[in-house]
Amino acid sequence: MASGRLSVGPPEDLFSSVVSLLPFHERPFITRFLKFEDRKRALVSRLLQYALVREVLGIPFDEIIIKRTVEGKPYLENGKGSLDFPNFNFNVSHHGDYVGIASEPICLVGLDIVSHSAPKQESAIDFVSNFSSYFTSLEWNNIINAGTSDEILVEFYKYWCLKEAYIKAIGVGLGYRLDRLEFRHIGWANISVCIDGEESMEWRFWLLELEKKHWAGIARGHPKRAADSYRRTLSRDDFNDEEYCSGLFLPNTDFMLRTIEQLIPVPTSRQNTTLPVERLE
């Protein structure tokens, strides 16, 4: 897994130069945002995806083809399975100060980052009550009985990012009912999920605290659970139990912080762009 933290830069003039290095079809996903901070997050998200593919699979930057399903889930179009990465897939998330990416060689992977921020014009209880229908009775009781207002918000965001990590892993759209998922845990360790009331042994979850009140939820699960549109993009979904468990029980690695400079590709003869990367601080 790898992560990239949102930098203070790049300034707007350099920002345009970096955007121009991406394939043409990627640029509208960045420039559609009105706020410059949102454009920066979208840009770093794209750079992370290309940097990850280049680092893990060794595909040159200008040969990487990343597309998206109808639900918007990104996938590598020209990635071929190998002994080490028979089902390479990745997921990206950004919120607050962080942009992150996670990848897996066999299992589906979902990542969701949330920034724990207090509501400005309503109490913590009133705020979380707007989302009560997305939680089971067990989850909701744990949230509203967590303690102080801040503890209620923390509990809410922990459940929320795990649910989002799951639906992002399987590649479904907004119509998936989050109350179908019930997360159980012991002090937020040994996290498991019940789907439609039945505990699933095909999934593992992690909850990581980042700096400045940010949380990252990570889901790892079986490729056969992917939505149809996403499953068709995978190299394989027919792993036997031994193969699948070899991926499911891989050790979870820590996030690695990367600077924006590290994500920018070195210009080639096909990319006739001068880029003063020393200005990215």
UniProtKB/TrEMBL annotation:
<dbReference type="InterPro" id="IPR050559">
    <property type="entry name" value="P-Pant_transferase_sf"/>
</dbReference>
<feature type="domain" description="4'-phosphopantetheinyl transferase">
    <location>
        <begin position="109"/>
        <end position="216"/>
    </location>
</feature>
<dbReference type="InterPro" id="IPR008278">
    <property type="entry name" value="4-PPantetheinyl_Trfase_dom"/>
</dbReference>
<feature type="domain" description="4'-phosphopantetheinyl transferase N-terminal">
    <location>
        <begin position="10"/>
        <end position="105"/>
    </location>
</feature>
<dbReference type="GO" id="GO:0005829">
    <property type="term" value="C:cytosol"/>
</dbReference>
<dbReference type="GO" id="GO:0019878">
    <property type="term" value="P:lysine biosynthetic process via aminoadipic acid"/>
</dbReference>
<dbReference type="InterPro" id="IPR055066">
    <property type="entry name" value="AASDHPPT_N"/>
</dbReference>
<keyword id="KW-0808">Transferase</keyword>
<dbReference type="GO" id="GO:0000287">
    <property type="term" value="F:magnesium ion binding"/>
</dbReference>
<dbReference type="GO" id="GO:0008897">
    <property type="term" value="F:holo-[acyl-carrier-protein] synthase activity"/>
</dbReference>
<dbReference type="Pfam" id="PF01648">
    <property type="entry name" value="ACPS"/>
</dbReference>
<dbReference type="InterPro" id="IPR037143">
    <property type="entry name" value="4-PPantetheinyl_Trfase_dom_sf"/>
</dbReference>
<dbReference type="Pfam" id="PF22624">
    <property type="entry name" value="AASDHPPT_N"/>
</dbReference>
<protein>
    <recommendedName>
        <fullName>holo-[acyl-carrier-protein] synthase</fullName>
        <ecNumber>2.7.8.7</ecNumber>
    </recommendedName>
</protein>
